[in-house]
Design a protein that fits this description.
CATH topology: paralog of FGE (formylglycine-generating enzyme)
Largest sheet: 4 strands, mixed
CATH architecture: Alpha-Beta Complex
Number of helices: 6
Shape: globular
Radius of gyration: 19 Å
Structural class: little secondary structure
Number of domains: 1
Order of helices and strands: EEHHEEEEHHHHEEEEEE
Number of strands: 12
Strand content: 5-15%
Oligomer: single chain
CATH class: Alpha Beta
Strand order of the largest sheet: 10-9-7-11
Length: about 425
């Protein structure tokens, strides 16, 4: 049904266009890249290696699709967001002859500011709920920072193609092949990070994480890199301005209000990473995220099982308020739809907002380095990140546990948020 806006990134300039119905074609970036639903993405990090093997490869600026907004929802900012090109405080413009958005080194960094001199170390426990009442979930009585154990194990990651299997007929080439992956046990937040929790981070923000913070303990090179420092905004006031990426659908408000229990959106991947480190956690890897969403070896089509998507299970297709067209009421409070709970206790793994994960996007990752692995993640650089889970703007098929999309790490999008993992 009604879809609202899809952001289109062209030559580093973000624009928007009106959407049609739920089969609206998503457009790629300049240079002939394919959209995230087309099954191909030029400009992905070709030749990237598994964690710790060295050598990062920047995606080319001309290729690939930026689903940063292309995901579904219409961000107002694409691959080069905010004011970095003119003000030098946080955004990064693609630099050099290629305009690459790679994080392999500092040469791709834009803006005029220098490196930030100080940094924070990772907290030993969650601090975004200290002093906050337990007001999350369907009964508005649960700890907004609750997390649940996800036992380690092995599962089939990606989309199945066996005739008659649950998602054989719909999906992307980037979801193939289905392959065996193992993850070590971890904890995953029950809820997506809320506006109220993110407000604690913004109110106290002064410096980026120290190098290496926010790392997966078994994935070499997965922590914060000093070359990312300039991707962070310098003050709470700058955050407040940037988080209002859309006047109607941005969940952030400068003062606490009725959105405190809605998922934060309009955040960049770097800000999501920094928040999780500040809050004593980290972003989950793509494999961890899908393991939790698929119910591990249960290999579910959706987090709740294989039954069809409805608005009572997951907020999607901009119909949460019962009317056509995207509106703020389509964005449900976290945990408001308990029928969509996953096997391990997490809520809103489908619908709500897409969720950033650690990994860089590589269209061929499943057939290459990531084909058979234990605790692996694509951390060696690229042009786009991975987001999972679908959003309040997504059609039902994008809520599948196997669905992948590839936003720019600097994009701000009303359809993208995150949750944290913990060890």
């Amino acid at each position: 049904m009604g879809r609202w806006l899809i952001g289109i990134v062209s030559a580093g300039i973000a624009t928007t266009s009106a959407c049609g119905q739920d089969e609206q074609i998503l457009r790629g970036t300049a240079g002939g890249g394919s959209p995230p639903d087309s099954g191909s993405s030029g400009g992905a990090s070709a030749g990237t290696n598994n964690a710790g093997t060295g050598g990062s490869t920047a995606g080319s600026a001309g290729g690939g699709s930026d689903a940063g907004a292309g995901a579904d929802g219409g961000g107002t900012s694409g691959g080069t967001s905010g004011s970095g090109a003119s003000g030098g405080f946080g955004s990064v413009a693609g630099a050099g002859a290629g305009g690459s958005a790679s994080d392999a080194g500092s040469s791709a960094q834009g803006g005029t500011g220098g490196s930030i001199a100080h940094c924070f170390t990772q907290a030993t426990a969650s601090r975004s709920c200290v002093g906050l009442s337990a007001t999350c979930g369907d009964g508005a009585a649960d700890d907004c920072c609750a997390d649940d154990s996800v036992p380690g194990g092995t599962f089939l990651m990606g989309r199945c193609t066996t005739p008659g299997c649950s998602d054989e007929a719909v999906g992307l080439d980037a979801e193939l092949p289905e392959h065996s992956v193992s993850v070590t046990g971890f904890r995953l937040d029950r809820y997506e990070v809320t506006v109220g929790r993110f407000r604690r981070f913004v109110d106290t923000y002064a410096t980026p994480p120290c190098p290496g913070e926010g790392a997966h303990p078994n994935v070499l090179g997965s922590g914060w890199r000093s070359s990312w420092d300039q991707r962070m905004l310098p003050t709470p006031a700058h955050f407040e301005a940037a988080l209002s990426c859309d006047g109607e659908l941005a969940t952030w408000t400068d003062a606490p209000g009725p959105n405190e229990h809605k998922p934060i959106n309009c955040v960049t991947w770097y800000e999501a990473f920094a928040f999780c480190a500040w809050d004593g956690g980290r972003l989950p890897t793509e494999a961890e995220w899908e393991y939790a969403a698929a119910g591990g070896d249960a290999n579910r089509l959706y987090p709740w099982g294989n039954t069809a998507v409805t608005q009572s299970i997951a907020a999607h297709d901009c119909e949460g308020d019962g009317s056509e067209g995207c509106a703020s009421d389509d964005i449900a409070e976290v945990g408001a739809l308990p029928s969509g709970v996953g096997r391990y206790g997490q809520l809103d793994l489908a619908g709500g907002v897409f969720e950033y994960v650690t990994d860089w996007f590589d269209h061929n990752w499943y057939a290459g380095v990531g084909a058979t692995c234990v605790d692996c993640a694509n951390v060696d650089g690229g042009q786009f990140k991975v987001a999972r889970g679908g959003s309040f703007t997504s059609p039902a098929h994008r809520l599948r546990a196997a669905f992948r999309t590839n936003p720019s790490p600097t994009s701000r999008n009303v359809a993208i948020g995150f949750r944290c993992a913990r060890d």
